């Protein structure tokens, strides 16, 4: 009986000591707070400088890119493997915004903004269909960063989110609700490891599964989608706080402080960082905060990669490249 009472007191005290799960409030003045679209990866303000860069340095390549996407326009989304299904959702969504913005009139497009939006939406519908399958359903994969792999490349949440965000003005209310529901399913089917106060490890698999949290909120928050959607949007957006700010970004700062490093070694580190970079880029533009500058460990990702890949002596030996070394990188080695 005494043990039972002690256990009850312990459990009660433990849960009282747990910090309350905080929600996320869009920073004032950010595209998210102003309920503007687009907001993922680029905004109305940032697309101009991007266009200027393309014109100056990549004009020929950009036209080649448009031609390649146009050449795939008649292909059915249902006939595509995972990678091209997800990446083409981005492609058609971006061409939709490029046409609609009026900024890219010096390039040749085969279709209108509305036609590109319809094609992007077709891909989103197929993504959602595969997401709902009882077996072998589409989900975020740890090696989603391998873009040349037909079966492993691409990111589901980012594909759905950009179709919603970049095609926003071309979509009907019904289509927007469909995409919001699809993103919410991803959030609900998230892996247990990403839940608050569960596991604390940062690893390759977790970084891809974390895409299920937050993207939906970043995409649809503040939009007039009808009854019930405001609560869904806030629920998904709160994940930006409890998973990304409070856990991944803060833990990364501590993980790479002093002599620590990525516990899985350089190979998994590189894959994990690619997963994180894609998400953080979308988050940065939405909240108008360059998180690659604010969080030093993200800013230094290229340096960590170069360090792991470059040949150098390790404990007196010099066999060659150390892309698979599984020890942490001391800051002393950076300075030498």
Keywords:
15 helices, disordered C terminus, mainly alpha, 336 residues, disordered N terminus, Glycosyltransferase
Estimated radius of gyration: 22 Å
Sheet of most strands: none
CATH top level class name: Mainly Alpha
How many beta-strand runs?
0
Number of helical stretches of at least 4 residues:
15
Describe the global form. Answer: globular
What is the averaged pLDDT score?
86
Remind me, CATH topology?
Glycosyltransferase
Counted up, domains total 1
Strand content: under 5%
- Low-confidence spans: pLDDT under 50, at least 5 residues? 1-20, 320-336
Give the termini distance in whole angstroms: 62 Å
Describe the structure.
The protein is mainly α and 336 residues long. It has one domain (30-335): Glycosyltransferase, CATH 1.50.10. It has helices at 2-17, 47-57, 59-71, 82-101, 113-131, 156-166, 173-188, 204-209, 215-220, 229-255, 266-287, 291-294, 296-299, 301-309, 331-335. Helix 5 (113-131) runs antiparallel to helix 6 and helix 7 crosses helix 10. The protein is globular. The chain starts with a helix and ends with a helix. Residues 1-20 and 320-336 have low confidence and may be disordered.
In short:
This protein is mainly α and 336 residues long. It has 15 helices and no strands.
Helix-strand layout with pairing:
Layout: H1 2-17, H2 47-57, H3 59-71, H4 82-101, H5 113-131, H6 156-166, H7 173-188, H8 204-209, H9 215-220, H10 229-255, H11 266-287, H12 291-294, H13 296-299, H14 301-309, H15 331-335
Helix pairs in contact: 4-5, 4-6, 5-6, 5-7, 6-7, 7-10, 11-14
């Amino acid at each position: 009986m005494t043990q039972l009472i002690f256990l009850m007191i312990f459990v009660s005290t433990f849960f009282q000591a747990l910090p309350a799960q905080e929600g996320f409030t869009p920073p004032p003045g950010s595209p998210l707070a102003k309920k503007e679209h687009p907001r993922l990866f680029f905004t109305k303000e940032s697309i101009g400088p991007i266009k200027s860069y393309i014109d100056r340095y990549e004009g020929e390549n950009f036209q080649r890119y448009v031609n390649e996407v146009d050449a795939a326009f008649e292909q059915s989304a249902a006939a595509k493997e995972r990678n091209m299904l997800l990446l083409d959702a981005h492609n058609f969504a971006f061409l939709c915004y490029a046409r609609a913005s009026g900024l890219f009139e010096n390039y040749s497009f085969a279709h209108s903004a509305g036609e590109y939006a319809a094609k992007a939406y077709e891909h989103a519908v197929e993504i959602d269909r595969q997401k709902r399958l009882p077996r072998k359903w589409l989900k975020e994969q740890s090696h989603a960063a391998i873009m040349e792999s037909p079966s492993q490349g691409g990111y589901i949440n980012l594909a759905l989110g950009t179709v919603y965000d970049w095609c926003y003005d071309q979509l009907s209310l019904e289509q927007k609700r469909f995409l919001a529901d699809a993103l919410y399913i991803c959030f609900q089917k998230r892996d247990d490891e990403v839940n608050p106060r569960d596991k604390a490890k940062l690893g390759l698999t977790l970084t891809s599964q974390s895409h299920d949290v937050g993207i939906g909120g970043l995409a649809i928050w503040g939009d007039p989608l009808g009854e019930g959607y405001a609560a869904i949007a806030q629920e998904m957006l709160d994940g930006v706080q409890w998973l990304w700010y409070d856990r991944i970004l803060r833990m990364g700062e501590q993980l790479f402080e002093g002599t620590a490093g990525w516990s899985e070694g350089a190979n998994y580190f590189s894959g994990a960082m690619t997963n994180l970079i894609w998400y953080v880029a979308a988050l940065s533009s939405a909240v108008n905060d360059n998180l690659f500058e604010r969080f030093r460990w993200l800013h230094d990702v290229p340096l960590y990669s170069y360090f792991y890949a470059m040949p150098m002596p390790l404990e007196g030996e010099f066999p060659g490249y150390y892309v698979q070394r599984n020890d942490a990188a001391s800051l002393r080695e950076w300075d030498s």
